[in-house]
Amino acid sequence: MCFKFFKLLCVLQTQYSMGELNFCYKYPHPAVTADCVIFGFDGVSIKVLLIQRGVEPYKGKWAFPGGFMKIDETAQECARRELEKETGLKNASVEQFYTFSDVERDPRERVITVAHYALVRLSEVKGGDDAALAQWFAMNQIPPLAFDHENILRMAVNCLKERICFEPIGFELLPEVFTMTELQNLYEAILEVKFDRRNFYNKMLKLGILSEAEPRPANATNRTPCRYRFNGEKYAELKQKGFRLEF
User: Which residues contact 68 (CB under 8 A, 6 or more apart)?
Assistant: First the structure.
């Protein structure tokens, strides 16, 4: 009985102490935001989704979807909430890739942002809340960005180039059924290189991570492309063996 009473007392003291820290913390602390770098693919080039800010600071400038984190949500939950609010994209799969904490990155106050990226198929988006407009931009047509978002973009692109060799992230940008040409275009767009067509085809087929979506008609010509689906189970099997995609 004494032990149970002592344990209960410890819990109450901890809760009281946490309450003091939550509401009476005497040291200055920063605000936290979540920003989302959204990549899409149009079959030829990589696109980035930007919103035009409708409020100050940087009203009228382009930026990534994002906003301040609520006290009762995680950074990832904040990223998803702001993404839906500003672009209309729902249930997007977002992943953290870096935290930006330069002291003067936001003119309003001391703000740290947890940056995320997401890969989505091109879709209609609609500006809302403090976003005046949402629009896709090609990588070579990115306008001047608000805050430190140019740094965030550079970091996100580097992260994408690195992870495409370890994760099947590129397939999230393609339709469920795709041609080998579309797949090659995607890898060339992300890695900014050109591959020999025959070598690329042979490497991808040899890996076994593609399954034919439908048999070619018996009377099909050589110009009729095969259509494929991504084989996630085979990729997971290769990854467990330390697989890395190299060209």
Answer: 31, 32, 33, 78
